[in-house]
Each structure stands twice: as C-alpha cells, then as structure tokens.
Amino acid sequence: xxxxxxxxxxxxxxxxxxxxxxxxxxxxxxxxxxxxxxxxxxxxxxxxxxxxxxxxxxxxxxxxxxxxxxxxxxxxxxxxxxxxxxxxxxxxxxxxxxxxxxxxxxxxxxxxxxxxxxxxxxxxxxxxxxxxxxxxxxxxxxxxxxxxxxxxxxxxxxxxxxxxxxxxxxxxxxxxxxxxxxxxxxxxxxxxxxxxxxxxxxxxxxxxxxxxxxxxxxxxxxxxxxxxxxxxxxxxxxxxxxxxxxxxxxxxxxxxxxxxxxxxxxxxxxxxxxxx
Length: 276
Description:
By secondary structure, this protein is of the alpha/beta class. Helix content is 36%, strand content 17%. Strands 4-3-2-5-6-9-7 form a 7-stranded mixed beta sheet. A two-stranded antiparallel ribbon has the order 1-8. The longest helix has 16 residues.
C-alpha cells in the first residue's frame, strides 16, 4: 500500500536539501494544484506514467493513487532521485538528464503518459525535443512558465507566435489548461506558470524533413520583422514566388503569419530547389 504524501512536510521541505538554483528548482507544494495536474492524465490501470523532474514528489502520491501499471520518474538531482522511492514506494526513479535523452525510445513503451513540472530554464528546448523525437506517447501534461505556455498555444499572427510554436505545433497539438500563481511553489518564482496538454500528431501530419524545417524556422524568425521574400532573397525568384503562391504564401508577409503547415510546405519547396 502506498503511504499518503505528507504535503505539509513537502511544503516545509523537511529533510530535503535547499532548492538548487542551478537546476531551476521551484517545488510545487499545493496538493490541489498537484491533483488537478494528475487528473488531466486520466490514468488507467494499463497506463505507464513517466514523470520528468519529480522533485520532492508533489505529483507522485497522486499518480500512484490513480493506479497506473507503472510509474517511472526521471530526475537529475541525485539526492531527490534516491529519496523518491522511500517517500513513495512504487515510484521507480532513474538518475538522468532529460535534455540528453533520446525521446524516440518512448515509442517502444506504447502509449506512455508524460507529466512534469518543468524547470523554466529547460522547458522550451525539452519540449522541442520531445515533440520532434517521440510520436507514440498518449498525452503529456506539463507545467511551464506562463509566457512559454502562451507561445506553445499561440495562433499565427500574434506576438507570442514564433519558432517554438511553429516547430512544436508541426509535431503535436497543444491545449492551454490553467494558470498557476507563484505562491504555490517553494521557493516562489517571480512569474506565473501554466499547465498545458500535449498530444502528438499522426505520422501523416508530421514534417518529412525535420532538419530542413528547423533550419528554415531559425532563419525566418531571426529576421521576423522582415518580409518573407527579403529573408529568402538568395533563393527568391519568380519560380519560387509562383510555387509559394500555390500554397497560399506571399512574399510580402512576415514569418509569424504562416501556419505550421505552410512552414512545412515552404521547407519542402526550398529543399527541392536547392537539390535541383
């Protein structure tokens, strides 16, 4: 039987080393928020749950209480990884750096559910990698900086829409969940957080040339105030302009007005021209 989690002790950080600023540690201490996050996973008895950065175990008790088939926890902090199974029998921690993982290995597990209170300093690159590398997970529920949540869920044309949005949205669908105030963390961050849900897109909707798309997005959004034809001046001629027009892409628009699908089409057009 799993022991109930002592939320008060977690909030006080009893017996734990101080939060490490180098790891971006801000520990969730509100059991109601933790329960809301885990509830969005809809854990069933056949599910495998993988948590990224369990920290002091704020989500662990709720995950185990939902009765998954297996619960794996990826933790970079050695002390926290060692303590987690003592606090929450049934949790299986692995001492790893999530930024160094090959996330395509998740697909072999089949329908994994991902969850995590992601450190602000790694959330964007980590989600960039997960979305591109893994296609077989069932759902991911993540807490990130509120500004990042807005970018992940942004629509074309807005100021939050950028390379991160266009890239991740090419591989997955993002849904904004709810905003989380700083007061539910210890230590308290200086900004709000938010919870987002991630669902991978089917294979036919994912980019055929991820490397080409990444290079294109990097170029376009490094000069996002310029018009498309100006950014792509070395390759922009009448033939490319005509091909882009057929995809609904005009040379006078700025990058943030294009949809993820149009970025994929443009990357394909450029690859074809450069290869010819």
